[in-house]
Design goal:
Blueprint: H1 2-37, E1 46-51, E2 55-75, E3 81-86, E4 93-94, E5 99-103, H2 106-141, H3 147-180, E6 182-184, E7 189-191, E8 201-202, E9 211-226, H4 227-239, E10 242-244, E11 250-252, E12 264-268, E13 278-285, E14 297-314, E15 319-320, E16 326-332, E17 336-348, E18 351-356, E19 363-367, E20 379-382, H5 396-411
Parallel strand pairs: 1-20
Antiparallel strand pairs: 1-19, 2-9, 2-14, 3-5, 3-8, 4-7, 5-6, 7-9, 9-13, 10-14, 11-14, 12-13, 14-18, 15-16, 16-17, 17-18
Length: 412
């Protein structure tokens, strides 16, 4: 009988302790709530605004482009023969006129010698025919020879002169072919790998080049822009408020880094590519370190026009609704927050470029926008104005301390 009594007393003690802890917790929370309730209303929220005015903003465009060599030449043989020697190192800079290959000149030397001999023979025949014609001239006048014989002598002299001209042209052709046995560099630039070796047979009409030379400084970048975007730009220029720009072109490389040198747009093609619907713009860049290589993919950033009626608004002041429309809050009459739907399709630095929806002198809210709702009362101040924090009212802090102390007393 004693054991159940002992267990009953222990249960009562545990239950009483739980009630005491619960009363302490509820008393402490009630005291804190009472202290917070004495703070009172805080008034309209303070927001920071900026006054916007229209200005000139470049219409920046980012387009894809491919690097193209400034000059490119495929070196091909102009005579047939065996390659005897190569005179360049692959991948180095070669200069215009520099000898790259030597083709066996034996046959062309013989052809030149033969053409030279034929020319000398024709010149000898010309001399004999001219002397004969000169002799027949006075004899024909004295009728010592017939007039027909004199005419034939003059004609033979002229035919001999024509043969001399023909043989001289043949000699020039042979000399040119002999010169072509030394294959020169047509342009100055960086030469690629050799596609033939010493001992290879090359022909005049072969399809494969011997090697390729490319000039990489300066260098071109071909930029592709859709014909629709170009048409929209031209319409905007025709309406007014937008002026053409001749800004520098900047490049973003394949690894995401920026190319340090700026380029300029040289021309725009007048034909639209039927398969892609794009127009090619060609920009020229300096490339002293050969960072840009032909075939490389880049992104070109440049301004095609300047919008003289655009507004720049800090990004913190622009939000998006569920439909994706850009929205800003402006300070309305009576210091109320007014929502505006605007057109903001691009950014410059830390600002949105707004082309529609604002008027000169509007006060756009850029600070304290987290809890804004349309038509609520606000306290507008210029942006970056320090917020004033008022000290607690008399007795507010003491009341909280007394309440907390009372809770502790209850807990004790």
């Amino acid at each position: 009988m004693n054991a159940p009594t002992s267990y009953g007393r222990s249960g009562l003690i545990v239950f009483a302790s739980a009630l005491l802890l619960a009363s302490c917790s509820s008393g402490d929370g009630a005291g804190k709530q009472q202290a917070g309730g004495r703070r009172g209303p805080s008034g309209p929220p303070q927001v920071g605004y900026v006054v916007v005015q229209p200005g000139s903003v470049p219409m920046t465009t980012e387009l894809a482009g491919r690097v193209t060599a400034y000059q490119s030449s495929e070196v091909r043989p102009q005579v047939a023969g065996i390659v005897q020697r190569r005179f360049f190192t692959e991948g180095t800079i070669v200069h215009q006129g520099q000898t790259l290959y030597q083709i066996d000149p034996s046959l062309y030397q013989a052809s030149t010698a033969q053409a030279q001999a034929n020319l000398q023979n024709a010149q000898a025949n010309l001399e004999a025919a001219r002397i004969k014609a000169d002799r027949y001239k006075p004899l024909a006048a004295m009728q010592a020879v017939s007039q027909q014989d004199y005419t034939d002598a003059v004609a033979a002299s002229r035919q001999a002169a024509a043969q001399v001209a023909q043989q001289r042209a043949a000699l020039q052709t042979a000399q040119i072919n002999l010169r072509f046995t030394k294959v020169p560099a047509p342009i100055t630039g960086r030469i690629g790998r050799s596609l033939v070796t010493e001992g290879a047979l090359v022909t005049t009409n072969q399809t494969d080049p011997l090697t390729t030379i490319q000039r990489l400084d300066p260098i071109y970048v071909d930029i592709q822009q859709s014909s629709a975007d170009m048409l929209a730009l031209r319409k905007a220029l025709a309406k007014g408020g937008i002026t053409p720009a001749s800004a520098a072109v900047r490049l973003k490389l394949e690894d995401g880094s920026d190319y340090e040198m700026a380029g300029t747009v040289e021309f725009s093609e007048v034909v639209v590519n039927e398969s892609t619907g794009t127009v090619t713009l060609r920009a020229r860049f300096a490339n002293p370190q050969n960072i840009l290589l032909p075939g490389m993919f880049v992104r070109a950033v440049f301004a095609q026009a300047i919008d003289t009626q655009a507004y720049l608004v800090p990004q913190a002041g622009v939000s998006r609704d569920p439909k994706g429309n850009a929205t800003v809050y402006v300070v309305g009459p009576g210091n109320k927050a007014v929502a505006r739907t605007v057109v903001a399709d691009r950014t410059i630095g830390q600002n949105w470029v707004i082309t529609q929806g604002l008027a000169p002198g509007d006060k756009v809210i850029v600070q304290g926008t987290a809890n804004l709702k349309p038509d609520i009362d606000i306290k507008p101040v210029p942006a970056n104005t320090p917020q004033k924090i008022e000290p607690p009212k008399k007795g507010q802090g003491q009341g909280g301390a007394q309440t907390k102390g009372g809770s502790q007393a209850k807990a004790g």
